[in-house]
Design a protein that fits this description.
It is a single chain. The protein is of the alpha/beta class. It has a seven-stranded mixed beta sheet, sandwiched between helices. The longest helix is centred in the first third of the chain and has 21 residues.
């Protein structure tokens, strides 16, 4: 596992040079960030809250949170120091309300029960111990806090081709979990699964929503035939 993390750090350190200009910012990151912002606004309303963004990279999402949800206090954590360094301009701009921290998703450098919202977008497939990472996400959430976990949706034929074939070929040892696997991970961390939303964009993604201290309510799904921002039933 240590070797996988070392390789990931090397890969993302190289990628940090062009990360903000990557086509993925338009194709995947931007749409998934906007989807999370909508859900956070719906669940948190106008009240102040603390948010932790795991795998924060150069701070693109953290800055978006501050622009769209100005009552949020934001912490960002990333394993890769090079990513945090490349985001220095954003950290300076938002230094009064955003704090970047270098740390590991499997051993978060925060006390338990301190965040109202935990987000993780498009980096989860790089985590070698995904069950441990989700348990850590649950640990730092306050009772009733919300986890928003986004990764590529690989349960359709198109998603399988993009993530299990193309991405895996380019990025090596990665694992995009199925919707069913995300159910198991969220439940195994002691979180209630509030919803799973499939976004059928050109690069489809799955938004998983967990609630801390909420027991294990049955997930609810809504089918839609539109091509953007819709809920769908989970697939194995």
């Amino acid at each position: 596992m240590r070797e996988e993390k070392v390789l990931a750090v090397r890969e993302f350190t190289r990628w940090s040079e062009s990360y903000d200009r990557s086509i993925l910012q338009w194709l995947l990151f931007g749409p998934s960030h906007r989807a999370m912002i909508r859900r956070i606004r719906q669940t948190m309303g106008d009240r102040p809250f603390r948010l932790l963004d795991i795998g924060c990279g150069t701070g693109v999402f953290a800055a978006l949170v501050r622009r769209e949800l100005p009552r949020a206090e934001v912490w960002g954590v990333d394993l890769v120091g090079g990513m945090l360094t490349k985001g220095q301009a954003r950290w300076r701009e938002h230094r009064s309300s955003v704090l970047p921290v270098q740390g590991d998703s499997e051993n978060l450098p925060f006390d338990s029960c301190v965040f109202d919202v935990v987000t993780c977008a498009n980096s989860f497939h790089h985590y070698p111990r995904q069950d441990r990472a989700v348990r850590e996400m649950g640990r730092v959430l306050k009772p009733g806090g919300r986890l928003l976990l986004v990764d590529g949706y690989r349960d359709s034929l198109w998603g399988w081709f993009i993530y299990d074939v193309c991405v895996a070929t380019v990025e090596g040892s990665v694992h995009h979990a199925s919707a069913r696997r995300f159910m198991d991970l969220v439940g195994g961390a002691g979180l209630g699964l509030a919803a799973q939303t499939v976004h059928h964009n050109l690069a489809p993604f799955l938004l998983n929503e967990g609630v801390a201290g909420a027991g294990m309510p049955e997930p609810h799904f809504r089918r839609s035939r539109t091509t953007t921002a819709h809920d769908s039933s989970a697939r194995d």
